[in-house]
Design a protein that fits this description.
This protein is an alpha+beta fold. It has 13 helices and 13 strands. Helix 1 runs antiparallel to helix 9. The longest helix has 18 residues. The N and C termini lie far apart (75 Å).
């Protein structure tokens, strides 16, 4: 596959799979939340894993965009969002590629075309039923599943029909964030230690290149054959993150019923204006893997970050999907609580 690619950063392959593991909720470990969807983004030339994203929603373009954001937003920001320990593995850090190799799934959509035009991404869509044309990312999915099956609680072997038909969720123990931390560890290990000695040319040997994906990635950029297309973080946020709304009320600023704060809101007196003129709604962008923050594009220019208040109803260590799950579970109990309250009042 890499014979037709000029160097690192020119072409990425992206694909999603169902994680062969059962997870539990961060809100209550007694709640099983099923199997996650794992997106992988792989650089074709160096074979390095440049980004990944784990979610609980089915494959869609909204989730694929988040995988691309995880790839090119910067490793420090991604480590902060997932609560990971920052480790410099790929130097320089990945940016948007010239071309992305995809299948004919969620990438053949109006939303994908709109995003590609906005960010200048070229999609190379494979013919139907030809996963072998981006076999590298398919194989890496299999390698990750084989590694976790040996020792992770709740992992299953989906390629064995008798286990696939009767998977057991009782053995599961990991939350979504803990599973992301595990994947981050094995992907870093792969980038730093996978054997790529068969790729070393005489020039690479003379330069002392490490025979691993991270070494090939670094050598390609240092020798001038790498491709980099850096965009501002503001454009990446508006182009790839999930669009939503935040409301400014007299008692605070809320997004998904969680309270946030920012210096710009104090300067512009959002809560004071809401007290005088009513609730105000603002378009914001968020990363669903973490409730810790969202970004608001100021119509006057600039992108402002809002952070979760320490007194909010959830911590920043849970995903937005887990928070919604807990809220809906609480709403299911509302009628029972009202009944018990009314019964007590009658007595």
């Amino acid at each position: 596959a890499y014979d037709s690619v000029a160097g690192p950063g020119h072409a990425y392959a992206i694909d999603a799979t169902i994680g062969d593991i059962h997870l539990r909720s961060s809100a209550n470990p007694a709640w099983p939340i099923g199997r996650p969807i794992v997106y992988l983004v792989v650089d074709i030339w160096s074979t390095a894993i440049v980004g990944f994203y784990v979610c609980l929603s089915g494959p869609s373009w909204e989730m694929a965009k988040l995988a691309l954001f995880s790839t090119c937003c910067g490793p420090r920001l991604m480590a902060d969002l997932w609560g990971l320990e920052y480790v410099e593995v790929l130097n320089p850090s990945p940016t948007l590629p010239f071309q992305v190799w995809t299948d004919r799934g969620e990438y053949v959509s109006a939303g994908a075309r709109e995003t590609c035009l906005y960010l200048g991404i070229n999609f190379a869509v494979d013919p139907p039923y030809r996963p072998d044309m981006k076999g590298l990312v398919e194989v890496l999915h299999r390698i990750a599943k084989d590694k976790q099956y040996s020792f992770l609680p709740g992992a299953i072997n989906a390629r064995r029909e008798e286990i696939e038909n009767k998977p057991s969720a009782k053995e599961s123990a990991l939350t979504l964030r803990e599973y992301v931390q595990y994947l981050h560890g094995i992907f870093c290990q792969y980038n730093l230690f996978a054997d790529r000695s068969y790729r070393l040319t005489i020039e690479m040997m003379g330069a002392g290149v490490e025979p691993n994906p991270a070494g090939l990635w670094r050598f390609g950029h240092e020798s001038g054959i790498g491709y980099r297309k850096s965009l501002s973080q503001d454009k990446l946020i508006t182009g790839l993150l999930k669009r939503g709304s935040a409301v400014a009320r007299r008692d605070g600023i809320f997004h998904e019923s969680l309270q946030y704060e920012s210096e710009i809101a104090n300067v512009q007196e959002w809560t004071a204006k809401a007290r005088n003129f009513g609730v105000m709604e603002h378009t914001v962008f968020s990363f669903p893997g973490s409730t810790s923050r969202f970004w608001w594009p100021d119509p006057l220019g600039g992108m402002h970050e809002f952070s979760l208040r320490t007194s909010a109803r959830a911590s920043g260590n849970v995903s937005m999907e887990e928070w919604r799950d807990a809220v809906m579970f609480d709403k299911m109990q509302k009628d029972d609580r009202e009944y018990r309250r009314l019964q007590a009042a009658l007595q």
